[in-house]
């Protein structure tokens, strides 16, 4: 009532934005609530009639199907909840490797598009335009059905130095088996990383105080790779390799990457890399030419100019769209269902759903998981972005 | 008055640049071997091309089988791509199992769509508002009647189980494009609204949809939607993924449109208020024309993504173009080592032509619009 009396007398009740907004929002809220309530009661009704389970008891029932790739112990006797974790871990595995690989390829291709060599720049352009304009699913099917499946049978594998074997059952690699004393190598690796971080800290401080540069990059590589390597040889090479051997119709021993995994990783990486390449190119081009000219005027050589002037400014432009590409990659990994890689969607929203019929619960859980992963990733990337962003004082 | 003797009366002829600064040799040296790393990369790339191009030409053209009654010629050792198979399967790739004597209806629908799209896209043609009204309102209804049939008009019903191939891909894409733009505009306006309930609902919807994979949205539309309505209303099997496509692309479109709305200065809306325009008048006459023009590249990118995403409807059992290509390669009459690759290359060409065309068109529009802004 107060709004009405305090308003100028000319405005009628239905023209007052406050009341109008209130009524409109109340009507919308009522409509949405009615919609949800209607859907809910219909769903309960329909599910009861069709005998679809409405609770979560399926979670602890035996899954009774096999999964051909699992990071945790799993068998057909395990329960559906276990299958969920297997699928989720497989999704995270494929996404994590895909993020790393597509970043490497994407940055390389993005740099190649700006190459001084006309031929390299053109090739990179052709790569980007072709891959970006063809659906990812088509590329996955191509890698899986047209490239990996027609590979020879294990007997006629393509072998590389007799240690790597590529055939239609997948890629077989020697499996490293840590022997007694390998713990020292892990320790050396940890020490190397810690030393590299300390070096970085010291170099920052030194540069702030004296302006002198320290070659952090090469030294860190030497510390992180060299230190464990030295310890490894000093400890008498405590690592054995289980090399895959042909036994009957298939290989035995070693590590195996399934064709599904290879095809999915290949497709996701190449597809996402083409988008990252465009982002990188745009980011580098967004740095004004005056910046590199000013750096040259200050006497910086091309290498330090790139490292200290161009890349830090380009990264500010690159990171936000890069984040959404990472998120896209994670979501696109769900296309695994089309080529049979046992990811979350294939295992949980596919097989478990078909076996149990608990559609509503399973789809809601699956969506919630992806939503959670997306939120966590964008949160982490926002933190990184905040660190890289222009500090305005 | 005679000019001073030290002033030139005519200009010197322009001298040619020094030798080695022009011509083909210079261009090659500069563009291909400008520096040592560039030279190394050029050589590597040239080596890769020298290996790949003859192989590709051999596979795609020289050794390709251009016409054959069945797969025998394609199975011969050393044979390349099997274009005969594509030619034979082309009707299936285009129409799926749509009854043969009714296929003229699909042709008619496609032709009308093509004409309307051409009319809409040629910025020089007159009456583009009429074209927009026809394409966004009349065409969907006519297309629906033509494709699914109306016994009253003498068009027998064709159930959607028989639909397939490129026609389904285009139906899904066009439905998504026609409905996602208005949906996205509404959601974007809702997200920017000052009314908390509306803004929260829009934001929640947009962020939820953008946070989950498209496949799960399709699963939801396919399996949960029929549960949410009374049994008699259960939507058609093609309608369900269509709803999923529209909801999904509307959320992405909303973010693009929001970017355009945010780029407009606040004064635009305030000036509209000062002129006495109501909210929807301001939106229609002042905000949207400017905001949409700003984000045309983003809108087209969303359309391209949507077109590529139509391939995923196969997960709920719809026979779209890619699905027909992927099933036809299993036909025992044609099955052979090169059939899969041939089919996928053909499908890639199909999608590439549409997506690349759209992106080129948006580049052209962008250039045309920015022409007025540069001095």
Task: Explain how this protein is built.
The complex is a heterodimer of chains A (393) and B (375). With 393 residues, chain A is an alpha+beta fold. The model of chain A has no long low-confidence stretch (mean pLDDT 87). Chain A is globular, with a radius of gyration of 28 Å. Chain A has 13 helices and eight strands. Chain A has helices at residues 2-6, 17-50, 80-113, 118-132, 136-148, 183-210, 216-234, 259-285, 289-297, 302-332, 336-339, 344-356, 359-388; strands at 158-160, 164-167, 170-173, 175-178, 239-242, 245-247, 250-252, 255-257. Chain A has a four-stranded antiparallel sheet with strand order 1-2-3-8. Chain B is built from 15 helices and no strands. With 375 residues, chain B is mostly helical. The mean pLDDT of chain B is 89. In chain B, α7 (166-191) crosses α10 (239-263). Helices cover 68% and strands 0% of the residues of chain B. Chains A and B meet through α2, α4, α5, α10 and α12 of A and α2, α8, α9, α13 and α15 of B.
Summarize it:
Chain A has about 400 residues and is α+β, with helices and mostly antiparallel strands. In chain A, about 65% of the residues lie in helices and about 5% in strands. In chain A, the strands form three sheets. Chain A has a four-stranded antiparallel sheet. Chain A has a two-stranded antiparallel sheet with strand order 4-5.
